[in-house]
């Protein structure tokens, strides 16, 4: 587990470096990301910049989420990129690194992503939709130094996050 | 974020004839006083410039009005400034919803719709209304208490919508943390 950094930490606004998926440090980083994601309530994804590491590594797990359709379980990817994106849909997102705000962001509801799982040298291609697609796009954005705040369409699309008791 | 020391907050409004540069002038005046502009909102309401802001700093209302005097002297802009006690922010509880109403302009739309929300303890956190020709539009963000009966609320909203001849929709503004 690693501490999660919050905006305005500059690491969140820097494009992450491409990584060597076989580098043991990267494999360990991915494992830490999974562990950190697991203990954060409601967290379905985490990217390396969010733990202060400017690198193109992220993890996603939308298992059991009510808005998920396709679900690949726990996914970790290095150097991921969007290959295909369509069926854009608006949805309200929050982020562990922007704890007090949410925003309406358009994301592709159909997505093809290419990246390499840590510990392997083999790129894989994943096709997904709905909430998992949104999670992938959010984390790929983190790896590129983008927050959901960079994607909101206008001044009335940012909201105070509600605290549930 | 809660401050540990007592902060001096000022509520400031500036309303009047629009022109380019008002915000730049107002914020420059406030920064000359050492006032930190925290939360603010500005829009044009039927062509009128309207800005509301909360500032933090160790000055009095009269200092603010004095510094804004060059902007207000010709009567084009009206400014007010009041000290306000700090409020806890980010501590709202409840589930967020977006409310949209549109239809022919009728007296009492806002009162009727927000009245239904208030009855069940719903708190409006953001509201915009526009009259465009004869089309009236209301959009609002509302926190509903977890105790609220959602179906009953929809029934009441439908009643109001029928009575006023407007379309009303309420949808969840729940956010997913990614
Ligand atoms: Zn995030």
TrEMBL record, chain B:
<dbReference type="InterPro" id="IPR002912">
    <property type="entry name" value="ACT_dom"/>
</dbReference>
<dbReference type="InterPro" id="IPR045865">
    <property type="entry name" value="ACT-like_dom_sf"/>
</dbReference>
<protein>
    <submittedName>
        <fullName>Amino acid-binding protein</fullName>
    </submittedName>
</protein>
<dbReference type="InterPro" id="IPR050990">
    <property type="entry name" value="UPF0237/GcvR_regulator"/>
</dbReference>
<feature type="domain" description="ACT">
    <location>
        <begin position="98"/>
        <end position="171"/>
    </location>
</feature>
<dbReference type="Pfam" id="PF13740">
    <property type="entry name" value="ACT_6"/>
</dbReference>
<feature type="domain" description="ACT">
    <location>
        <begin position="11"/>
        <end position="86"/>
    </location>
</feature>
